[in-house]
Amino acid sequence: MSSSINIKKSVIDTLLAGLLSLIVFGPVIGILLDGYDFTTRPSLLLTMVAIVMVGRFAISLFVQSEKGQMMLYKHQNNDDGVIVLPPGHKSKMVYIVPIAIIIGLVAPFVATKYILTVLILGLIYVLLGLGLNIVVGLAGLLDLGFVGFYAIGAYGLSLGYQYLGFGFWSMLPLAAIMAAVAGAILGFPVLRMHGDYLAIVTLGFGEIIRLILTNWTSFTGGPNGVYAPLPTLFGLEFERRAKQGGTPFHEFFNLPYDSGLKYVFIYLSLFMVVCAVLYIKHRLVKMPIGRAWEALREDEIACRSLGLNHVLIKLSAFMMGASTGGLAGVFFATYQGFVNPTSFTFFESALILAIVVLGGLGSTVGVVIAAFVLTVTPEMLREVADFRVLIFGLLMVVMMIWRPRGLVRITRTGFAVRKGVA
Amino acid sequence: MDIVLQQLVNGLTLGSVYGLIAVGYTMVYGIIGMINFAHGDVYMVSAYITAIVLALLSFFGIHSFPVVILFTLLLTIIITGVYGWTIERVAYRPLRNSTRLAPLISAIGMSLILQNYVQIAQGARSQGVPTLLDGTLRMHIGDGYVQLTYMKVFILVAAFSGMGILTYIIQKTTLGRMCRATQQDRKMASILGINTDRIISYVFVIGAAMAALAGVLITLDYGSFDFFVGFVIGVKAFTAAVLGGIGSLPGAMLGGVILGLAESLFSGLVNTDYKDVFAFGLLVTILIFRPSGLLGKPAVEKV
Amino acid sequence: MSKSVLKKTLVSLAVASSFAAFAAHADIKVGIAGPMTGAYAAFGEQLWKGASQAAEDINAAGGINGEKLVLVKADDACEPKQAVSVANRLVDSDQVAGVIGHFCSSSSIPASEIYDEGGISEITPASTNPQYTERGLPGVFRTCGRDDQQGTVAADYIIDKLKATKVAVIHDKDTYGQGLADATKAQLNKRGVTEVMYEGLTRGEKDFNALVTKIRASGAEVVYFGGLHAEAGALVHQLRDQGFTGGFMSGDGITSEEFVTAAGGPKYVDGVYMTFGADPRNNTASADVIAKFRAAGYEPEGYTLYSYAALQVLAAGLKGANGDKTKVAEWIHGNTVPTVMGDKQYDAKGDLTVSDYVMYEWHADGKYTETTN
User: Out of the domains of life, which is the source (chain A) (predicted)?
Assistant: First the structure.
């Protein structure tokens, strides 16, 4: 590996980058539209171009250095999808999981209400990520309309309460079942389609659900949305004034009213559901159905020739994923206290997909981490309000370039035949 | 009668624009198999560039329509092309050999970046351009009439010539042959001495250029735009590309026109509220019976 | 980053640090919530500018019983999800004593539940949907009117002044737009006029040619649109392009110079009717405030003065409640507040007792004036 640094090449690279950035930034940054007229901002433009040139020069030098060459080599050759651990590997998760659960259970009692709401949102996205991870990560079916199931869950709670008088706890399983049925209905026609046709059909499905929710004003309340009830604890309610015909929690126990209490309760219920889903998911991957999903992802034809029922496998993936999305929707509705169609746009689907890919396709731990990264970051960036979305977008691009396979790779413990048995 | 005819004309102009943008989706998909979600925002950027070029031209005292339109088209297409090249170079090329979904997420990030970048640079308010071409064409049919502004006529002519030129480039020139070769088999093409990385860059430039053409036409016609216009039209154009069979150039154009007509006729004759439901419903129906779109090649299953 | 943004950041930093210096005294924090980013950021800016000026003036006059008002900017991008999130943040982290905002009705409504739980008042300068005050929350107020009042004025004008019997009612399928369109439709129907068409368009789209052709086919003499300026502009442009010569009317959602750019030039907005509160800029009480805005190079259009007035109401409430933020609502309900827009008095729901909607007309020079006839 030659370690001599070719300055001339770097300079040429830098000049080219400067020229490009002049063309790219020139009109949009250098000239500010003002009605049909404009004003110029040459100094700002030059600053931007200078930043790009300095950056390019630094990168060019770094890439030529030995360390940079190493990184480049590593980047181009990280193609192995699954890391296989040696047989008998003891996972550190044994220690991490109980600690995480304890932290999770203590958190609501120490966190402020605002942090608690961000945590709730984070956990909702964990659920969504886990659901989509089954469809995209395990079964390899690209779904761009996952938000549809989310919407079904959220509206299921609100409309079920409004028309049928069901409360939170009865709608929770019902909404999951409804979403699963919707998943089956969607899954059926799309089974014939491959890869990206599937993507657009699911996208269409998500949009259709949102449009119906918007337009069917008499049933769904249209853009005004509908009220969603809070969860109750054996009939005790967590609002200042009881709305569902029960007794307010604070009156029952003769406590002063604390508006944070309802979030503590939502959080704890949500936390338990997330733990349960995580456990189920963890077991599923090791069960025949989970193995079948992954096998189908790797090679559909091989699977079918081995006698696996691909229709059933795909459908089950869709339904499992959808029901998890439905659960997330119920919690979202109750957390908001109100749902309307603007919460279920295509951008939401893209965000959930980003969680799955960023976390590492198929990796459960990765999804959990990515869900929190993607929900907490925008909240932290509130301080720099104007640049919030820009930084968020940059983060997505940089993360993908840095870790194209996601934060956490799937690992699998290898199997070895025990000696003396064969 | 006149109303149906007017709706056909509406659908055709809308569809031709969808087609122009769909070309960018379909070519990129054909060559590297990724959905370029930032493409709609490239179109949005081109709308801003159009307005900036127009403002510059009027500052230099150039007002004759043919000159203005020529310069606007030329400059906007070039600058937007550079945007396409830069985006590919920065956000997608480093991901060339990674998983299929990584560039997709990168593209979503890029789309957010472009939107926010334009919002910060040019402000959140909606912007406009002055009317360049006044006057309308009116044809009387019975009691009613069909009315088209000259601008609409210009859109139709320009959009279809744009597609014609592109078809010529892809079918007849060396560059086009190299594009098609790379699309069919990237490895083989590179063995035959084609610089596939460069070809992929060209494809992004071509896609951006077509989006720029659409951007100029639409901006001049509607006279207004904001930094959010890329999203809705991007989703529609992508739908059009899939409808026609993603990866197929004539398919994208056909898909665009069909989608435009379907939307127009449905909202005109039935109901505007549900026109998008109808558009997506149409797509799903077509895909159920032709899983690879109208003109797409069916995927071969090798055993 | 644009210069103006840089400047804004620096100014807000400077302001923040100067407030930090004051923090030794007990300051009173007030949240200003609205779409500071996103497609409706222009309206967010109006709210912020109005409230900032009001805070400056109130503080210069001695603050609230000696304490200074400090504003906290909260961005909801007109999304309910973000509105709930910032509302929690304002109540919990920033411990605000009251909130001016939000802009979109679809944000104000869910956020008001959070403010209610937190026991503070919310005064919106712009959300006109009736549902905002109809749910019986004690701490919600507005300095603008309600859609049903606005719709009544619009429908009466269509029937009495424009003498139209064929009206097409179009909305943008959003809480505000559809609410307004429904209110107008209700009043039209009440007066015996059945609309020839009632349909929604999609926010964010630009091509409404198909809808325009349909409007033409319906034979409508007047188009009533419930929605915001971006779609209203594109719609009126395309109506004119297809040779529609009838009237076009909309509500306070198009009260922005941006309506002219969105329509593609002043000639397209000529003759467009709009309902809006009696222009606060014509009010004598506001003359010196307006002069201050103009001196700072800012034209206080649209909701700027509504936001100014909202903070005045809140400040008066805080003063009257003597620092007990839970008593603010009670005080505002019981007293008349002099504001930059005249004296304001509230009914039990939190609506203004006097509705002052009047009809405006846009002209070919891109400005609007009150109709005289």
Answer: Bacteria
Dihedral sign of CA atoms A248, A254, A256, A258 in order: negative
Nearest CA in chain A to B292: A197
Quick check: C85 and A225 CB within 8 A?
A: no
Amino acid identity for residue A199 in this structure: A
**Side chain identity at B164, as an amino acid letter?**
G
Q: Max Cα separation, chain A?
A: 86
Q: What distance in Å separates the CA atoms of residue A64 and residue A202, rounded to the nearest whole number?
A: 45
CA of C206, closest CA in chain A: separation in Å? 18
Q: Do A117 and A263 contact (CB within 8 A), yes or no?
A: yes
Which of the pair, B188 or C281, is modelled with greater confidence? B188
Contact residues on chain A for C116, CB-CB shorter than 8 A: 240
Count the neighbouring beta carbons within 10 Å of the beta carbon of residue A328: 33
Is B263 within 8 Å of B275 (Cβ atoms)?
yes
Chain C neighbors (3+ CB pairs < 8 Å): A, B
| SS3 letters across C207-256 | CCHHHHHHHHHHCCCEEEEECCHHHHHHHHHHHHHCCCCCEEEECHHHCC
Residues 6 or more apart whose CB falls under 8 angstroms from that of C97 comprise C28, C29, C30, C120, C318, C325, C328
| C351 in a structural domain | no
Q: In one letter, which amino acid is B169? A: I
Question: What does the pLDDT look like over B132-177, one tens digit per residue?
Answer: 777 777 877 777 778 888 888 888 899 889 989 998 998 899 998 9
Beta strands A338-339 and A37-40 are unpaired
The backbone torsions φ and ψ at residue A338, rounded to the nearest 5 degrees and listed phi first, read -175, 135
pLDDT in tens, C197-241: 898 888 778 888 888 888 888 888 899 999 888 889 889 988 988
Helices A310-336 and C80-92: angle between axes, nearest 10 degrees: 40
Distance CA A264, CA A405 (A): 35
**Residue ranges per domain, chain A?**
7-76, 83-413
Angle subtended at Cα B222 by Cα B220 and Cα B224, rounded to the nearest 5 degrees: 90
Q: Cβ of C291 under 8 Å from any chain B Cβ? A: no
Evaluate if residue A259 carries a pLDDT over 70: no
Percent of chain A with pLDDT over 70: 86
The two structure tokens encoding residue B210: 């077509």
Cβ–Cβ under 8 Å, residues B226 and B219: no
Share of chain C above pLDDT 90, in %: 8
Supply the pLDDT for residue A82: 63
Query: Per-residue confidence at C22, pLDDT binned at 50, 70, 90?
Result: very low
The Cα–Cα gap between A192 and A189 comes to: 7
What's the domain range around C162? Answer: 147-278+357-370
Q: Tell which CATH classification among 1.10.10, 3.60.21, 2.60.40, 1.10.3470 matches the domain A83-413.
A: 1.10.3470
Selection from A411, A406, A401 nearest residue A76 by Cα: A401
- Tell me the pTM: 0.83
- Using the Cβ of A310 and the Cβ atoms of chain C, whether some distance falls under 8 Å is answered with no
Exposure string over A273-290, b if 16+ CB within 10 A, otherwise e? bbeebbeebeebbeeeeb
Domains and CATH numbers, chain B: 2-289 (1.10.3470)
3-state secondary structure of C257: coil
d(CA B298, CA C11): 60
pLDDT for C324-343, tens place per residue? 777 888 888 888 888 888 88
Q: What tokens were used for C248?
A: 């076009």
